[in-house]
Write a structure and sequence with these properties.
Blueprint: E1 4-10, E2 17-23, H1 30-40, E3 45-51, E4 54-60, E5 65-66, H2 70-84, E6 87-92, E7 97-105, E8 108-114, E9 119-122, H3 125-135, E10 149-152, E11 156-161, H4 165-169, H5 175-185, E12 189-195, E13 200-206, E14 214-215, H6 219-232, E15 239-244, E16 252-257, E17 267-274
Parallel strand pairs: 2-3, 4-6, 11-12, 13-15
Antiparallel strand pairs: 1-2, 1-17, 3-4, 4-5, 6-7, 7-8, 8-17, 9-10, 10-11, 12-13, 13-14, 15-16, 16-17
Helix pairs in contact: 2-6, 3-5
């Protein structure tokens, strides 16, 4: 089974979040896809097969299937563009239908996804307390302008906004405790963000439930954050830029375009680089 390795949301020829991409005539069974994802070892691998005029897509982390993965969708868009030429491709996920575009620009690959409809709601106090305790913080660490929330755009995330970028950079937590918290809360990641300005965010995403401590670029969380900021009435000019992965030595840049209208899809785009399997 051919696995393409593509880093999504790369910063030029470096960084980005590696994803596996498997394009086949028919999807393998779930057990096989889970085993391949575990062997690849990236935070997610996307599996795609032709279906009608579009593609049937499923996403697997090393430890579980996830309903939606943004960076693996960007990697898939790049792979489809390499195979079929620049274009927009319809994707049917387990719980939604979306599109991804892939194209070449100035000698580099780029891709953009249109997210499932986003939605958000205030996070429960008990969940907030448990999450803060996981990282060794208290409520004074939070940015009151962006209250803790459950934000979704294909997958559920707990969003915690921090006042101090230094606190974000020093983030640490116990993997087993994080996995248990995420499982009981029904969330895929804890999205930790710092607003450097109204349009520039620094982010780190704890992904213990998927079997990895942290994701260097999380497109699904970026879409969810964009939808939440719109719901919140955050001062936007329609776009935000998210810097993620710097603390991991994998700088990633996610561009988020937010149209007006609660629940409308959010566009997340970035560069993609084909990886040398021997070098990463």
């Amino acid at each position: 089974m051919l696995v393409q390795r593509i880093a999504a949301f790369s910063d030029g020829e470096t960084g980005g979040n590696p994803a596996g991409v498997v394009i086949t005539e028919t999807l393998p069974d779930s057990v096989t896809m889970q085993a391949v994802a575990a062997e690849v070892g990236y935070s997610e691998t996307a599996f795609a097969a032709p279906e009608g005029e579009g593609w049937r897509v499923r996403y697997f982390a090393p430890a579980m299937e996830v309903p939606f993965c943004g960076h693996a969708t960007i990697a898939l868009g790049a792979a489809l563009a390499l195979r079929h030429g620049d274009g927009r491709f319809g994707l049917r996920l387990n719980e939604a239908s979306i599109t991804v575009e892939g194209w070449r620009a100035e000698g580099r690959l780029r891709a953009a996804l249109q997210s499932p409809p986003p939605r958000s709601a205030p996070a429960e106090k008990n969940l907030i307390s448990r999450a803060l305790a996981l990282f060794g913080w208290d409520v004074t660490a939070l940015d009151s302008r962006i209250p803790p929330a459950i934000a979704e755009a294909g997958a559920r995330h707990l969003v915690l906004a921090l006042r101090d970028h230094g606190v974000l950079k020093a983030m640490r937590y116990d993997l087993a405790a994080g996995r248990e918290l995420m499982a009981t809360a029904g969330i895929v990641t804890i999205a930790l963000v710092h607003a450097a300005s109204p349009t520039l965010f620094h982010a780190r995403n704890a992904f213990a439930i998927g079997g990895v401590e942290e994701d260097p670029a999380t497109g699904a969380a970026a879409a969810a954050l964009g939808g939440y900021l719109r719901d919140l009435g955050w001062p936007l000019d329609g776009n935000i830029l998210i810097h993620q992965g710097d603390e991991m030595g994998m700088p990633s840049r996610l561009e988020v375009a937010i149209t007006s209208g609660r629940g409308n899809p959010v566009r997340v785009s970035g560069q993609a680089r084909v990886m040398d399997p021997a070098r990463g």
